[in-house]
Amino acid sequence: MNIIMLGAPGAGKGTFSAYLEEKYQIPHISTGDIFRENIKNNTELGAKAKTYMDKGELVPDELVVSLVVDRLAKDDCAKGFILDGFPRTLPQADALTKALEDAESGIDYALNIDCPDEFIINRMAGRRVCPGCGASYHLVNVPPKKEGVCDVCGAELIQREDDNPETIANRLRVYHEQTQPLIDYYADQKVLENVDGTIGRDNVFAVLDKLLD
Ligand code: AMP
């Protein structure tokens, strides 16, 4: 099953992707996580990506597309994948369509996690993440059992550098301009499913179960 997660930054794509990864045993591929990993490891790609990420801008298509196409060719994607944060522009979507067509494959579901902007702003301002295992929390909605500490691995939680108010506003502007048009793109391909992202994590899980089972 080949799945794309669409939706604004902070809509919960990462949380829902992790749920589907566990359930269907297919890899969750997050381009944002790949870039953050490269930044942590001081790679050339990481240094290039960081200049865009810090401002809330998109990393140029040419730095993203080949990275994803190469990743999808790996053996663990043979039974499917969950793409989280890719594609984010129409050229990226076209490149993905072409790469999948070349492999006689395609997208089965584009899940659009739909949330209004005010909801996103609140969600991202309260978001805390674990630098150790990548688990995600929210100060109010999904607090860790012990304040500031990851439930899963015990590391100290941090706020992502790009979860500050100015960068959040810019990421939302970029989302509306460049990524939102993909909703129509995948509706045209007849694979779009809209999911209300405001109904709480467990309710979204239940909606996803119903859609995909
Ligand atoms: P995310 O964790 O998905 O919110 O991504 C964090 C940041 O990484 C984004 O704000 C972009 O700067 C960059 N990024 C992630 N995925 C892409 C992509 N498909 N195209 C361009 N930039 C991306």
Detail the topology: elements first, then pairings.
Blueprint: E1 2-7, H1 13-24, E2 28-30, H2 31-40, H3 44-53, H4 61-72, E3 81-84, H5 90-102, E4 109-114, H6 117-125, E5 127-129, E6 136-138, H7 165-179, H8 181-188, E7 192-196, H9 201-212
Parallel strand pairs: 1-3, 1-4, 2-3, 4-7
Antiparallel strand pairs: 5-6
Helix pairs in contact: 1-9, 2-3, 4-5, 6-7
The chain binds adenosine monophosphate (AMP).
Adenosine monophosphate (AMP) binds at residues 9, 31-32, 35, 52-53, 56-59, 64, 85-86, 88, 92, 162, 171.
Strand order of the largest sheet: 2-3-1-4-7
User: Ranges with pLDDT <50 over ≥5 residues?
Assistant: none
Count of alpha and pi helical runs: 9
Mean pLDDT: 95
Share of β-strand residues: 5-15%
- Distance separating the two termini: 11 Å
Structure class: alpha/beta
Taken in chain order, the helices and strands follow as EHEHHHEHEHEEHHEH
Rg calc: 16 Å
Number of strands: 7
Biggest sheet character: 5 strands, parallel
- Bound compounds: adenosine monophosphate
Helix content: 40-55%
What does the overall shape look like? globular
Question: What does this 3D model show about the protein?
Answer:
- This protein is an alpha/beta fold.
- The chain is built from nine helices and seven strands; from the N terminus they run βαβαααβαβαββααβα.
- It has helices spanning 13-24, 31-40, 44-53, 61-72, 90-102, 117-125, 165-179, 181-188, 201-212; strands spanning 2-7, 28-30, 81-84, 109-114, 127-129, 136-138, 192-196.
- A five-stranded parallel β-sheet has the order 2-3-1-4-7, with helices on both faces. Strands 5-6 form a two-stranded antiparallel ribbon.
- Helix 2 (31-40) packs across helix 3, helix 4 runs parallel beside helix 5 (90-102) and helix 6 crosses helix 7.
- The model has no long low-confidence stretch (mean pLDDT 95).
- Adenosine monophosphate binds at residues 9, 31-32, 35, 52-53, 56-59, 64, 85-86, 88, 92, 162, 171.
